[in-house]
Every structure is written in structure tokens, then in C-alpha cells.
């Protein structure tokens, strides 16, 4: 009744091609952004620290992998490695040139990740499907090894970890131990909105079309004049760029420091791929659903179960959480193999014809 | 899109052999080039080129006993990688599922074996010894059968005909579930494999050969022998039994197999059970070399380069790939590792596999992929 496009006429091409052609969608997005803006001032520090910050930081990486896997059809298991490249690049840049603003460096670190991503994306021209997925593990393990074994990357810190230095924006500390959570959140949010806008424009334009053509069938795409080399490597570059920015955000704004090699382990790669698939491949909003799922679920299970009276100790809880995550994964894949984004679509469709379903 | 097997007339040499020859030729040319470079004095001792290209080979020549030791260790590791890869291949062939949980099945089955042995001897008061160990073995095999049945019922059947990445993700979910479940039942502490109770040999023999000593663990010999026997047994099973024939039919074409009355569901249970038994054997072997804990998970990831090297659908590929990766990894770590500061074992296997894949994108023994519009 409320969600219906009746009466909204498209009078020019720009209207027709708009990403949100329905007015209610535009209002919805505005409301979501408004809520996101006031959220840090109402949410508790705990929620902010354990759910919202990792959600924002990881969602960028999930969008990045979605570009590669969902839009271009190349499966990658190296995303955590590329995130690490971003984090370490940002750390090196900001310690070498402390006078440049950290925001610029967070953004710039994506380019380093993109360069590494292109290099490891080269095999994708020969190798396809699951073979490629395994091949990208080479990137993951090599990068993880490099983070531990090359002391230059963490400035010869004897502990082998990187510690985020204090950096300010207009005199307000935004990274380092003294920065306020709310400030970190807002910076993160800014990055997420900017990167989402960028990704959305990329996938809706000519480049995105060529990616999707490659995904659907790369030989046919080649016959139609799409250069596979450019399309695939560009997908790897953009995807790694997003992962790199996400890694920098993850370490600088969420963790505040990273143990060499442990944060960006293979498990994180799987988690990101998992978020892409649970959320829905080839869907922007699905990326956010997927991220929310992987970030919130462990926390909710860990802290929610005792709250409703199921007393489980810490060690047992972790095992049960693992079991539930595993079982839920399989369940969700069975119920909706196309991800949460599909459920969202179905819901919108239902809402559109409500209250007369026929 | 259709990917079909090539039906062109057989060339004189099989493609895999041709590829091997090509690679050997390249290596030979490189070796000659290195010798020429060193002899002509273009690469003086101590230069980077000498360190990378010549010094390791001179070491091999000077200390042949160390070389034999490294090769043997690589061989044993390779056999075990091959076993894990074999489990993958069995399942991939029969159901088209890339079973990421194979590595966890290895740990899980070994844990079941050790855990049930512990429970029987400690809580139920049965006398420790071979009898109880065999009882535990039976329990472990039964568990793997139940697991196979449950997986078929709960995971495979509803997900039939889904995209391969979704099946992969489902097995990742299975992995998490098995980790949680295994730790919940048997505890997270590393356990010691009941090697002696199962009648496996322990101890080691030293051989004095080539002017040095080579240590050979009896267990490693047993592992190699058992693995060979098992692979031969599987080959026999596939070739000459009714079920084996059905398995091969399913691997060739699901639809054709269905049309001649082969039950896919039954075959899947059998194939997952077979993979589970392979996992159990692998778990016993790995567990005897180190402790049984979920840290063994990392070994499963080591089997992945073996797979892409050998091809997802080829049993001989898994074996040859396992040996190449095992030996290559140990040689690389032993002779070239110090140049990189050590620890290159974690990624060397992948780089070796990638190197092969660039020449043969479907793996050494994989079916040639022909794509049509």
C-alpha cells in the first residue's frame, strides 16, 4: 500500500536509469543513512566496538569480493591477504610521512593492495572456477608469510605487531588509543558510503556490464569484444582496492593494532566469501546483509544465549557457536541458495502487491 | 556452456606425458645453463645468482645422505598429502562437490578413534590394548558411515544441482560444525594417537649409506605401505566390483547413471563413506607423527595444491601431485628456505602448483576442458 510506484512517471532517461527508481526506496536510503548517523550517539560503546565498527570495516571488503565473485564470477580466497596489504601499506605510509592526513593514506593504501591483487590475479586468465579459488590461496599464504617474515613492514617492532599511531583530523584524534569510538565510527561510515557509491557506479556502468558478461560466459564475452585481460584484471584490481581500504580501516579504526599474520589469516578470507554468498552474490545490499550476519551472529550467540538464561561457559560457548554457525550456514544455503538479498527482493515484491496478492 | 571430454584420436604420447617431458626439457635446459654460468665464472661464489641457482645443488652433491633424508621425508609427506587429496577426488568425481571438509574429516575421524579409546579405557574400565583399540577403530568407522549418511540426507540431497560455489560453502559450514562438534565431545586438547595399540610399528632404523646416516621411522614405512595397499584396494574396488562400476558410471554422467537405475543417493553415501575411511587412515598416520588436534586442519589446506596440480577428477593425479608437492616442498624448505628466512613451506606448495597450472590449466591429469558457446 505504501510501497508502490504507481503514479511515479519517468519523464526522461536519467529517471529511467536511476539506481533507485522508486521514491520510497530513495526515502528509505535517506532514512537508513540518517539512522546510521545518529546511531553512535545512542548505541552503547560495547555495541559500537564489537558490532558496528567491524561491520563497517568488513563491509567494504565484502563489497570488494562481491565485485570479484558476484559480478565477475572469479572466486578468490585471498581477500584477507589483500586486506593485510592495505593495512600494512597504510601503516608504512603513515609512519614514513606522518604529516599527510591519515584519511588520504587509508584511501591510498587501497592502490597498493590493487597492485598486489593484479599480480595475483594474473593466473585467472588461464585458470577458472575452483582451480582459481585454490590458486588464489597462494596469494593468501604468501602474503601472510610476508607479514611475519619481512620486519621492514612492521618497522622492526620486536613484538612483530603494528601499533596504530595517533593521527588527527582538524585537531580531533581519529586513530590511536585516545580516539573516541564515535569519531572512528563516523570516519568508517564516511568511507563505507563513499566506497559503496563508487562500487555501485562501477557495476551499473559499462565496466560492470563487461564484468557481468565475463561472469555469465567469458568466451561469449570475448567474442562480443570484451577484452578478458582488461576486464578480469580490472576486477581483481578494484576488488583488491576495496579489500585494501577495508584492511586499513579494520586495523586503524577497529582493532587499533594487529598481530603479524594472525588477523589476516585464511579464516577471515573464508568469512568474507561466506558473507558474499550468504548475502547474495552480485548484490550490493546483499553484501551488507552478509556482513551483518557474520559480524553479529557470533556476538549475539556468545552474549545473547546467557542473557536468555542458557548458562554456558566460555569454552563450551565457543564450540557451540561454531556448531551453530556451521549448521546455520548449511540451513541458509538450503533454504535460499541465492542469499539474503533474494529474500529482501521477495519481501519487496510482496510488499508491492500487498494487501491484494493477486 | 558445455565442457566435454576430448574424443580426438589419441596422440602417440598421452598429453600428460608430453607435458611432463616438456617440463623436464625446460628443467634440463635450465640446469645446463646454470652449469655453463658457474663454470664460465659469470656467477662468482657468494653472489645471489650462485646462492639461488648453484649452491643448493652443490650442497645436494656434497651431502648425499642429507639429500636422501630430505627426499624420504618429502616422499612420506607426499603420500599423506596424496591420501587427503584422494578423499577430495573421490567425492568430487562422484558428486561434483568440492569437499572442503575432507581435512576436518581427517581430524574428526582420528579424534573419534582416540577419543572413544580413551573413554573405553578410562571411564568404562576396559583394559588398554589391541582389542579395545580395534573396537575403537570399528566405532570410528561406524561414525564415518553415520556422518556420510547424515551428510547425504541433510546437506547433499536438498542442495542437489546447485552451483559449485554453494556446495563448497556448504562443506565449509560442515567444517565449522565438525570442528565445534569434535571439540565439544572430545575436548580441545591435543591427544596422542594410539599407535602401538593399533599394532603399528614404532621406532626408527638408521642406515649408513653414502657416507652418512639416514634415519627412517618405521611408522613412515608403514604409512607408505598402508597407503599403497589402500590405493591398490580402491583401484580394485573401482575396477572390479558392482558398486565400483556404479561409482564410475556416476562419475561419468549423473543422468546416464540414473537412467540405468543407479541410485545416486546410495552412491553418494558410499562415496562419502569411502572418503571417510580414507580420512580415518590419513588421520591415524598424521596423528601418529604429531598429536591429534584441530591444528591438523592446516594440513588439509596443504592438500589443495595437490588437487589442482593433479586435477580434481584424477586419482593418479592425486597420488603424483601429492608426491610432487611433498618432495618439492621439503626440498625447497631445506635448500632454498634459508635464503628467504625460512617458513616458506606454507606457500611453496601453492607456487609449485601454480607453476604447473600455468602450463596445464586443468591439472596434470585432469580432463581437458573444451568450452563451447
Give a short synopsis of this structure.
The complex is a heterodimer of chains A (358) and B (373). Chain A has 358 residues and is mainly alpha-helical. Chain A has helices at residues 13-16, 23-42, 45-71, 79-96, 102-121, 129-149, 181-204, 206-216, 218-223, 228-255, 266-279, 284-307, 314-335, 340-353, and strands at residues 162-163, 167-169, 172-175, 257-258.
Question: Can you offer a commentary on this structure?
Answer:
The complex is a heterodimer of chains A (358) and B (373). With 358 residues, chain A is mainly α. Chain A has a domain at 23-264. In chain A, 71% of the residues lie in helices and 3% in strands. Chain A has helices at 13-16, 23-42, 45-71, 79-96, 102-121, 129-149, 181-204, 206-216, 218-223, 228-255, 266-279, 284-307, 314-335, 340-353; strands at 162-163, 167-169, 172-175, 257-258. In chain A, the strands form two sheets. Chain A has a two-stranded antiparallel sheet. Chain A has a two-stranded antiparallel ribbon with strand order 2-3. In chain A, β2 and β3 (172-175) form a beta hairpin. In chain A, α3 packs antiparallel against α10 (228-255) and α8 (206-216) crosses α10. The longest helix of chain A is centred in the C-terminal third of the chain and has 28 residues, at 228-255. Chain A is globular, with a radius of gyration of 21 Å. The mean pLDDT of chain A is 85. Chain B is mainly alpha-helical. Chain B folds into two domains: 11-59, no CATH class; 63-372, ABC transporter involved in vitamin B12 uptake, BtuC (Orthogonal Bundle), CATH 1.10.3470. In chain B, 71% of the residues lie in helices and 5% in strands. Chain B has 13 helices and four strands. In chain B, a hairpin with a 2-residue loop joins β2 (204-209) and β3 (212-217). The chains are: A mainly alpha (358), B mainly alpha (373). The interface between A and B is large, with 48 and 52 residues.
